[in-house]
Design goal:
The chain is an alpha/beta fold. It has 21 helices and 18 strands.
C-alpha cells in the first residue's frame, strides 16, 4: 500500500506514490525515484523526528520509492508522507492496506517532530480531488488553505484534518483504521477571508485632473483591455496605475479559487496566505529576468504573468525592461497561456492577464514636460526645465524597445502631459474609486451574462475572437460609416480594426447600450491613435 504525496510542477503539479520496503541488511535508507537534494535529506530529518517524538527507528535496510520514477522530485513536502510510510512498514502503526481508501499527506518535518507548512496545498488538494482522494492530512498552518476546496466539494464526503506534529499524524492514522474517519474530522472548517485591501490602494479622488487617463483606466478595467500611458516624470502615471485594483470588479468564486491555487504554488502559505477574491496586481522590477516574468526554473514554476492571471501585470518604466522580456510577452497576451518547454516535456501555464505599461516619452524624460512658469523664476531657467535634450534618433531608439508587434496589441494609449494641473480646482470634485468601480462592475456583469447565455468561454470583451466580434459588436449605420472612414484614413491593421471594435463594445457596455453608436467608435479610435509616435505627448493640452 502507498501514501499519496504531491510535488509542485507547472500550475497543477504531480501526485506521488510513496512506498516503503524494509528488508534485512546494513541499516540505512535508500530513496529511489529521482529524488533531488531536499528530498534525499529527508531521511535524516525523518530519523531525528522519530527519536524526538519517542519512536524507535527501524534498524534495517529501508527502501523508499517515489513513483512515478521518471520525474524529478524537489522540496521538503515529502517528509511527513515518507515518515508515515516508514511507520506503517515497520509496524508502528496499522498497515496502510487497512485504510478505507487512498489518502494524501502533506508536510515538512523539523528535527523535533513538528510539522511545518508547505507551499502548494491548495493545488495539491485540487489534484487529489480530481484523482478521487477523500482523505487528506495537512499541516496545521495550511488548514485554512485546504478548507477552500474541501469545504466547497459538496458532491462527496471529504475527510481531512490538520496536524502539528509527527506523533499527532500517527495518532489520526490509527484512529482512521479503527473508526474509518479522522478524529473530529474538520468537514466545515472556515474558509479564509478574502484579500480586500482597497483602503490601502489609494482613491482616484486623491488624484486631480487626468480625466482622459482615468477614463482609459475605467475602460481597461471594464473590458480587460491592455493600456499604455506615457509622458513626463512626476505627471502621475504610476500613481494612478497602482490604483487600478481599486476600480476592478471582484473575481467570481471559480476565478478566485484558480488564482489562489496559482499563488499557493508560488509559496504563499501559513500566515501569509489569503483567499484572493480580488484581481491580483503584479508590478515586477525592470531588472526581472525572462524566467521570472514568464515562468520556468529547474522544476517549472509560475512566473509573474501567471501570478497576474485574471488580474493586471504592471510594467513601470517599461522601456527599461530587457527587450527579450517585452517581446516574449506578446504570445501570452494573444494566447492567454504560455507553454514552457523543458527536457521532461512541455508545461502549459495560465496567463489570462491584462498588461498595463508606463513609460517616459523620451530617455531624459523632458519630452512633454512644461517649463516652470512660477513668478520670480528666471526666463532662461523656465525654458530649460521643460526642454528635451534627446535627439530624434535617441527617442526613436528608446521606443523601438517596445516593438511594433507589442504596441499593436495595446488597445488604449494615453499621453500624459507634465504638470497637468494636478491640484484641486475650486468647486470641482473628483470621482471616487467606489463610483468608478460601480460602473465597471455593472459593465463586467453585462459581459458575463452575455457570454454565459451563449455558453462561450470568454471572460471580457478584450478576449473576443473574430467570430464573436462579428456577432456582438453591432454598429449603427452612422457608426459603421464613421468607422470605415477612420480605418481608411488612419490605415489600421487587422488587429487594430478588431481592437477598436472590442473597445467600443466595452464603452457601449459602460453606457448600458446594446448597439455601438458613433460616440463609442470615436472614443475608441481616439484611445487607439496615440502611442506609435512618442511626439504624440506634445499634442496633449494640460
Amino acid at each position: 500500500m502507498f501514501i499519496t504525496a504531491y510535488a509542485p510542477f507547472g500550475d497543477k503539479g504531480i501526485l506521488i506514490r510513496v512506498e516503503t520496503d524494509i528488508r534485512r541488511g546494513i541499516p540505512g535508507i535508500d530513496i529511489s525515484g529521482l529524488a533531488e537534494g531536499a528530498v534525499k535529506e529527508s531521511r535524516e530529518r525523518v530519523r531525528a523526528a522519530f527519536r524526538n517524538v519517542g519512536l524507535a527507528f527501524p534498524l534495517d535496510r529501508i527502501l523508499i520509492n517515489l513513483a512515478p520514477a521518471g520525474l524529478k522530485k524537489e522540496g521538503a513536502a515529502l517528509d511527513l508522507p515518507i515518515a508515515l510510510s516508514v511507520m506503517s512498514a515497520a509496524g508502528l502503526i496499522p498497515d496502510l492496506a487497512s485504510l478505507p481508501e487512498q489518502m494524501m499527506v502533506l508536510g515538512e518535518l523539523e528535527l523535533s517532530g513538528r510539522v511545518r507548512p508547505v507551499r502548494g496545498v491548495l493545488a495539491a488538494v485540487a489534484a487529489g480531488l480530481s484523482d478521487g482522494i477523500r482523505f487528506f492530512i495537512v499541516p496545521k498552518e495550511n488548514e485554512e488553505e485546504a478548507a477552500i476546496l474541501l469545504a466547497r466539494d459538496n458532491g462527496r464526503e471529504i475527510h481531512y484534518t490538520a496536524v502539528s506534529s509527527l506523533d499527532e499524524a500517527a495518532h489520526v492514522l490509527v484512529m482512521l483504521t479503527k473508526e474509518g474517519s479522522f478524529p473530529a474530522a474538520l468537514r466545515s472548517a472556515p474558509v479564509p477571508a478574502g484579500n480586500s485591501n482597497e483602503s490601502e490602494l489609494g482613491d482616484f479622488s486623491c488624484v486631480y485632473g487626468h480625466a482622459r487617463y482615468k477614463r482609459a483606466m475605467e475602460i481597461a478595467a471594464a473590458g480587460g483591455h491592455n493600456l499604455l500611458v506615457f509622458g513626463a516624470p512626476g505627471s502621475g502615471k504610476t500613481m494612478l496605475a497602482r490604483r487600478m485594483p481599486a476600480i476592478m470588479a471582484p473575481l467570481t468564486p471559480e476565478e478566485a479559487v484558480e488564482v489562489t491555487r496559482i499563488h499557493s504554488l508560488a509559496g504563499a502559505s501559513g500566515e501569509n496566505f489569503s483567499f484572493l477574491t480580488h484581481p491580483p496586481f503584479r508590478a515586477p522590477h525592470h531588472s526581472a529576468s525572462a524566467e521570472g516574468i514568464l515562468g520556468g526554473g529547474r522544476t517549472i514554476q509560475p512566473g509573474e504573468i501567471s501570478l497576474a492571471h485574471f488580474g493586471v501585470l504592471f510594467l513601470d518604466e517599461a522601456p527599461l525592461f530587457k527587450s527579450n522580456v517585452l517581446q516574449a510577452i506578446r504570445e501570452p497576451l494573444q494566447d492567454r497561456l504560455i507553454t514552457v518547454v523543458r527536457a521532461q516535456g512541455p508545461v502549459k501555464l495560465p496567463a489570462d492577464f491584462q498588461l498595463v505599461m508606463a513609460a517616459n516619452a523620451c530617455p531624459c524624460g523632458k519630452l512633454g514636460a512644461e517649463g516652470n512658469s512660477e513668478p520670480g523664476i528666471e526666463d532662461e531657467f523656465a525654458s530649460q526645465s521643460g526642454d528635451c535634450f534627446c535627439s530624434p534618433e535617441e527617442i526613436h531608439k528608446y521606443w523601438r524597445k517596445f516593438g511594433g508587434a507589442l504596441l499593436d496589441r495595446i488597445d488604449l494609449r494615453v499621453p500624459v502631459a507634465g504638470n497637468s494641473k494636478m491640484y484641486r480646482q475650486a468647486g470641482k470634485c473628483e470621482e471616487t474609486s467606489a463610483v468608478i468601480k460601480q460602473r465597471v462592475t455593472e459593465a463586467v456583469e453585462v459581459q458575463r451574462r452575455r457570454f454565459d447565455r451563449e455558453n462561450i468561454t470568454c471572460r471580457r470583451n478584450a478576449r473576443m475572437n473574430p467570430a464573436q466580434i462579428e456577432r456582438y459588436c453591432k454598429l449603427t449605420k452612422k457608426a459603421d460609416q464613421m468607422f470605415r472612414k477612420a480605418a481608411e484614413r488612419l490605415s489600421f491593421s487587422g488587429r487594430a480594426y478588431h481592437s477598436i471594435l472590442k473597445t467600443a463594445r466595452t464603452i457601449a457596455d459602460l453606457d448600458r447600450r446594446e448597439t455601438i453608436d458613433t460616440e463609442h467608435i470615436l472614443e475608441a479610435v481616439q484611445h487607439r491613435r496615440p502611442g506609435d509616435d512618442p511626439y504624440d505627448v506634445l499634442s496633449i493640452q494640460p
